Amino acid sequence: MSDNNTASDRERRNESRLKILELANMTSVPMALNAVVRLNVPNTMAHHSAPISAADLLRLTPAADPDNLQRLLRLLASHGVFAEHLSDGGLRKYSLTDVGRTLVSDESGLSYAEYVLQHHQEAVVRAWPLLDSAVADPSEEPFVRANGMPAYAFYGENPEMNELMQRAMAGVSVPFMKAFLEIYHCFDGVRRIVDVGGSSGDCLRMILEKHRGITEAVNFDLPEVVAKAPNIDGVTHVGGDMFKAIPHGDAIFMKWVLTTWTDDECKTIMKKCYEALPKEGKLIACEPVLPHESDDSPRTRALLAADIFVMAIYRTKGKHRTEEDFRQLGISTGFSSFRAIYIDHFFTVLEFIK
């Protein structure tokens, strides 16, 4: 009995040490992902119907090092981004998995690749070693401590970063919006819709193409944002401040807006939405929603990890929230009813009725 307990204890300690080593080296995973995107590996791989070796992936750049690329591919294969195919002679070849295909550009040139790149820019990465300061003194974001100004202001002064951020959001938005429009059918009676934080107006364009009964659409964002927005049939671009006033509409749509603000700021935004809606008008907010209990599922881990990204980069007290948190925000700002519609593993549709 004692020997068995000793062996069991030894194995448990070994597993614990191994887990800590994995976690301590976890930075290698997103950095490897960032590297293969910068090297255009997913798009190159997508043009080959059969598995391909690292050397063949780099055949147009002879000075590059296929051995080092293979090391990146092996790591990412262990996380399901690529599939590894090992021949009898020991040659390793790789192909895309469904996960890897999210990094392949679509017909519009969009994918999740820009999301990967946006998260690992130098200014963003500089904030991470200061994450403990978000706990010790939450009055200032780690990004601000590292770069001297808030993230959105920093993007505004760096056009390349801002463009990448916009493309990253578009790459994430398009597949979500397709799922949203397939499942959400509650635009009956809506004639005028306002997208708060609508950026270039892409979400409104997709909504209008699906719901012909909507005759007016307002893309509402900061003046400097809508000034660069393209002309879209049926869409009026309006600049302003959502903390002061929001254009009126039968329905107000927003996506990933509330996440980056504190509870009090969210209440202000939602109150302005309430004031802009008629009786029985609706606020449709698409946000990440945390489960009530923590677990080790990929969904929970993705949501919790993205929550820490918000803490580090945007607002120390901005956060992902549970369904009940959103329900209470709705009650506190006057909305009479609320429901959550789970149509996507990351974003949830939150419907607040006035």
Report on the structure:
There is one protein chain. The chain has 354 residues and is α/β, with parallel strands linked by helices. It has 17 helices and eleven strands. It has helices at 2-24, 28-38, 41-46, 54-57, 66-78, 98-101, 113-119, 122-125, 133-136, 142-147, 151-157, 159-183, 202-210, 223-226, 263-276, 298-313, 323-332; strands spanning 52-53, 82-86, 92-96, 192-196, 216-221, 235-239, 251-255, 282-290, 321-322, 337-341, 347-353. The strands form two sheets. Strands 4, 5, 6, 7, 8, 9, 10 and 11 form an eight-stranded mixed beta sheet that branches. The longest helix is centred in the middle third of the chain and has 25 residues, at 159-183. The mean pLDDT is 94. Pfam families: Dimerisation, Methyltransf_2. GO terms for molecular function: O-methyltransferase activity; protein dimerization activity.
What attributes does this structure have?
354 residues, alpha/beta, three-stranded antiparallel beta sheet, 17 helices, 16% strand, globular
Q: What is the terminal separation in angstroms?
A: 66 Å
Quickly count the helices.
17
Helix content: 40-55%
Class based on secondary structure composition and strand pairing: alpha/beta
Radius of gyration: 23 Å
Oligomer: single chain
What's the shape? globular
Q: Which residue ranges are poorly predicted, with pLDDT under 50 across at least 5 consecutive positions?
A: none
Largest sheet: 8 strands, mixed
Instruction: Give the DSSP E fraction (strand runs of 2 or more residues).
Output: 15-25%
Helices and strands, in order, run as HHHEHHEEHHHHHHHEHEHEEHEHEHEE
- The chain-level mean pLDDT equals 94
Secondary structure tally: strands = 11
